[in-house]
């Protein structure tokens, strides 16, 4: 848009910018508020309840949840393990499945795609899945975090669409040189797909990091709860000590509010540090996956 | 497909048996690649579909694994009759449909508005910042968002209630009030998803021909007229598709959101299929009954999705996938 702005357009811009700033504040304020509260001493919280930055800092919440014998550390490790192992296996199985499904000439392309897309439309539901996992011996078993969510149909379609965009000529010339399908996949398609793999890695990793429901369903042992579920229990219960400690009894327990706030912060910070750098990837993935055509 | 000769080894044989053998041998690596994923879908998606048979049986969670499920006596549609006659049926239906309705009216247009406004920002650094900040809540779990909401809305020391109390009014019990709970669901959903939802619309806006705006300005059109006569018509197709997809997903209950925010005092206005199935099936072990309720939901959801896909095809767009 060239040319001088009219008076009306200038006013419009100013108002638009003000609204945008306001919306950003609405987005950030609750997060900053929680971060502030996690380091605010209880007395000051009572005196200046709306203050974002306390006059002096109280780290006891973090000291408490990160101390040895803390169940928060346990569930943090569980979540990290789950995210690492789960996402790795997600990516391996998803890309392996997506590649043949992106090939027009693969004879099983249509029936398999139909079979997979159908699972996005209809599912057995919670109860049959629960009974299945129980019968497979996944109760109180770490693999319940990994196996039942091995492939996400949406991410698979995103990956398949990415592969389908890579020109066939690359595959043809490799095959003329005698490469087989596995070679073509590993040495041509995967290296060309780092951006799209980054996209679905983010989607899968966020899924694992944020999941809590399978802990509630399948884990009786609180030592194997994921971070989010431990946090959920912490928000729900009035006393924090039976959730946050494993065996060692702490000589000092900070106020429940401080512990909750500190836990929210450590459960959230890793994702908030990562997502801005992957922005261009998930924007692209969202577009490729959501609307085809 | 001019080049199929090289990649597509023709699977020709003399008899059907040989031809099948060729199909297996020629594509052996591709078959191998799909194997783990296909096994996953068969075991974790299709076996539970078969497991729906417990909705027509009287299975009470007896020990003995699959055998106990198989041996449970058939009772036909009795579980369905119990559900349709119960008071909960009406409550669950009403809440599911009413909450979807609210989502379509309020949550659906919000990202479109945001995309229109972000598009009007002229400083590119400011534009990028607004985008990054508004995408942020999408990456928080509902557990964390529920934690934030509790902190903001708590009657004792929540930020909002402290403001209300400072004016001398009584604190509002947002999360336990039947009149506030649904608005809170809608507002928190908008807060969480507005930025991420705007991505699709922003992409569509950037593909609009800028000369149209220049021409409109020369003719003296103001910003609002430009948005109404150029931007929105250009977006109409994508908006229609997204709306149809949204309607197709109206039986998706937002379990994560509701479960993390609700409590018995607001069941009346927030209990939906999935929360009801969870409480009955998992917490009370009424497996057959809750599987039947879950099946009612799955069938309705399937019908809506098929219907919405047909509708979007009618509109000339390809259906979802």
Q: What are the salient characteristics of this protein?
A:
heterodimer; A: 293 residues; mainly alpha; MetI-like fold; 2 domains; 15 helices; B: 321 residues; 17 helices; 73% helix; globular
Describe this structure in words.
The complex is a heterodimer of chains A (293) and B (321). Helices cover 68% and strands 0% of the residues of chain A. Chain A has helices at residues 7-38, 42-47, 60-65, 71-101, 109-121, 126-135, 153-165, 168-176, 181-192, 194-210, 213-218, 227-236, 241-244, 256-274, 279-290. Chain A has two domains: 1-58, no CATH class; 71-223 and 274-290, MetI-like fold. The model of chain A has no long low-confidence stretch (mean pLDDT 89). With 321 residues, chain B is mainly α. Chain B folds into two domains: 11-71, no CATH class; 85-314, MetI-like fold (Orthogonal Bundle). Chain B has 17 helices and no strands. Chain B has helices at residues 4-7, 16-26, 28-51, 65-71, 78-85, 87-107, 109-120, 124-135, 142-153, 159-166, 178-206, 210-218, 223-248, 255-261, 267-270, 273-283, 287-314. In chain B, helix 6 packs across helix 11 and helix 11 (178-206) crosses helix 13 (223-248). Chain B starts with a helix and ends in a 7-residue tail after the last helix. The interface between A and B is large, with 105 and 106 residues.
